[in-house]
Design a protein that fits this description.
Layout: H1 2-21, E1 30-31, H2 34-48, H3 55-64, E2 84-85, H4 93-108, H5 114-125, H6 141-150, E3 154-155, E4 163-164, H7 171-174, H8 180-184, H9 189-200, E5 205-208, H10 212-218, E6 224-229, E7 236-245, E8 248-255, E9 260-263, E10 278-286
Parallel strand pairs: 1-2
Antiparallel strand pairs: 3-10, 4-5, 5-10, 6-7, 6-10, 7-8, 8-9
Length: about 290
């Protein structure tokens, strides 16, 4: 009888996993334009013939197809209820990396429909893949790496070869006026502070910029990286995709100064010069 109960329990867990894998986000919960749907479907169709590529090869290939796409910040801000925003016409550094990752995962799954893509995007963007108002979105990229590692979407193991990232995270709660939803809903701040305390208590590792050779030795083509910050209360300044070009690692990213998606002219080490406000690099290595 005990064995039968265990078997039934395992079958129940399997059914939950299957339901979760088949979950499709309602389009009523999304914000997008027809052009966004066209871009998604076009890219899924184009890259479906390259699904044999590894996820690390596929992500940069998809990223290259966005070159020249305008940089626009704060495209995800749509109020407390937090509808899922799909905007591939305008990208910032994080939405660029998320979009490339979600597109690549959809291609690797063998699917080419819009709904499958938005399900992947929601899983990547939100804590534990569950969208439930503004604070369910992963706002700090260090936590983004950790949570997506727990979901087995990326690996943070490369960082273990680096040094401990000692940081007290509190930038958002200290500057609520910079975030429209927090400014309109100050009642969210206590819950945000609790989230920040939990993130600050996590053990993160990174590669400090004082040892560039160690950084270069641990990077791989297709890595998603965060440039760690010297700004008080902040973890990551900028996000991009590492690409191997002409014998050096460069950054494929939505650049605010370039105002579009570009490949950096110089190598990744240009982003971690001594005078830079970036203190080093944290790696999220995509897995599938």
């Amino acid at each position: 009888m005990k064995i039968k109960s265990i078997i039934l329990f395992l079958l129940f867990l399997l059914s939950l996993e299957t339901l979760n894998a088949q979950k499709v986000v309602s389009l009523n919960d999304c914000i997008f334009q027809p052009e966004d749907r066209r871009i998604v479907e076009e890219k899924l169709k184009t890259f479906s013939s390259r699904s044999c590529l590894s996820i690390a090869e596929l992500i940069p290939e998809i990223g290259y197809s966005f070159l020249g796409t305008p940089y626009v910040g704060a495209t995800l801000e749509n109020g407390l209820e937090e509808k899922l925003v799909i905007n591939l016409r305008e990208l910032d550094c994080t939405t660029f990396a998320e979009s490339c990752l979600a597109l690549a995962r959809t291609v690797k799954s063998g699917k080419t429909d819009f709904e499958s893509y938005i399900s992947e995007l929601e899983r990547v963007r939100y804590r534990d893949g569950i969208r439930n108002q503004y604070l369910s979105r992963i706002h700090y990229f260090s936590e983004w790496i950790r949570n997506n590692a727990e979901k087995k979407i990326v690996s943070e193991e490369p960082n273990l070869k680096g040094e401990k990232f000692e940081r007290t995270i509190r930038f958002m709660s200290s500057h609520p006026e910079s975030y429209p939803v927090l400014k309109a809903h100050p009642e969210l701040i206590p819950a945000l502070i609790q989230q920040e305390k939990e993130i600050s208590g996590m053990n993160f590792y990174y590669f400090p910029k004082n040892n560039p050779n160690q950084i270069l030795k641990n990077l791989k083509h297709g890595d998603i990286i965060g440039l760690t910050s010297s700004t008080e209360g902040m973890d990551i300044n900028h996000v991009g995709i590492i690409v191997w070009k002409e014998g050096q690692f460069h950054l494929l990213h939505a650049g605010q100064s370039a105002k579009m998606v570009v490949i950096s002219e110089g190598p990744i080490t240009d982003f971690i010069k001594p005078e830079s406000k970036n203190t080093g690099i944290m790696i999220a290595r995509p897995v599938y």
